[in-house]
Every structure is written in structure tokens, then in C-alpha cells.
Design goal:
Layout: E1 13-19, H1 25-35, E2 40-42, E3 67-74, E4 92-100, H2 107-118, E5 126-132, H3 136-144, E6 149-152, H4 157-185, H5 198-201, H6 205-217, H7 223-234
Parallel strand pairs: 1-3, 1-4, 4-5, 5-6
Antiparallel strand pairs: 2-3
Amino acid sequence: MEPDARIDGAAAIRLAVIPIGPIPTPLFRHYVSLLSLHTTIPFPSLRSFYTSHQKSPFANQAWETGSLRFRFVPGGEAPPSPWEDFQSYRKVMGVIGIFDCGVSGDLEVVGDVFEGKCKGFGNAVVRRCFGFSPGEEQLEYGSKREGNLILFPPADQQTLEMHLHTMMQDIAASLLMEFEKWVLKAESAGTIVKTPLDSQASLSSEEVSGLGNQSQKKETWSSSKDYRGLLFIGRVPC
């Protein structure tokens, strides 16, 4: 069980937030705290970022009242879970890199380092690298460079929070469009869902026969014991 597991944890999309380059730990934590102000993005605010497909499976989505929720994982500290395929909310669906432009001056190197770290998050479909307090030359270079590198000019905290909120709207819309592609490509046939317990559940015919012979020599289980057995089989970690 995860130490900070919550009953509503499955409703949040996980985003890893990783430091890029030699950024001081207190400064990294400060930027993570600013991101944490935007854990809920209402659907109505995504209209200008989201482009639906012709046969969108989200046509009947509650666009006026719904929202996307995020859980930021600093440093991508949560190791991959063997239950990810069975419980998709455990997957890290996006990666946000954070770097200090005053320390990491070469943006080309920053981009390469970020792409290298993203390889450790195989399920991530959205990647953004945020650079803070860039110089004029960096801003000029960044304006000409296409990709996932986003620079935030020096500004007061209120303005910075507004810019981060805009970027989170963009990330939320990008995730929705990726999820839409998944649904459109999904096969109509049923899918067999397996868990890590399946490898432990396979028994040979001899083992099954042996268990059957043993059961004949024992007393019949009470109904209460049968229920406890069923509950154990169905239990998965939170």
C-alpha cells in the first residue's frame, strides 16, 4: 500500500515533476509548490486548447461542470508498480521537467538531458520542460525553438501562477486528446485483464487433483470461511 494513498487517489492523473540540471533543492520545491496550486483544471477552461476528433468518444462529456485532476510526483519518486496495467491510475501519464535558466545556460543541452530522463517514464504521453528566469538570449533562442521547452520570463508570483495555470490547461487538453486516441483505437472485442497474481494462480493438473483429494479428507469449510477466501482473492493493493 502506498504511504499517502487516498480514497480519491484513483481519480487523479499522475504527473512526474523532475529536476533538470543543477537546480537547488529549495528552489525546485518552490516551483513544485506553485504547480501544486493547479491540481484541478475545469473542462470549460480547455476549450481553446482542446481539438476533438470527428467521432469523439467524449462528445457527451460534462464540459460545463467536469474537470481533470492531477497528482504531482516530485522527482518521479514513486517506483513503477506491477499493478499499473490493472489499475491505470498508477501510471505516470506525463513528465514535467524544471530547470533554472541562470544555472543551466545551454538550452540545447537542457533539452537533451530532459529527453533522456523521460525515457524512464514509458507510459508518459505528455512531456514539458519548464525553464524559469531566462536571460534575453535564452528567450530569443526559445522563441525560435520548437518542441516541449517552455520558458517563463522573470515575473511576480501572481503572474507566474497565471502562466503556470495556462500551461497546465495545455497539458490537460493534450492528455484528453491522447486519451481520445486510445478510445478510438480500442478494439471492440473484450479484453482479458490480468494482474500480477495471475502468475501465482496457475496450477498444474496434478496439483489441482492433489488439492481435490486433500479436500475430501478435511471437513467442509463453513460459508464464512469461503467468503474470506473470496475476499482475499479479490484484494488488490491501494
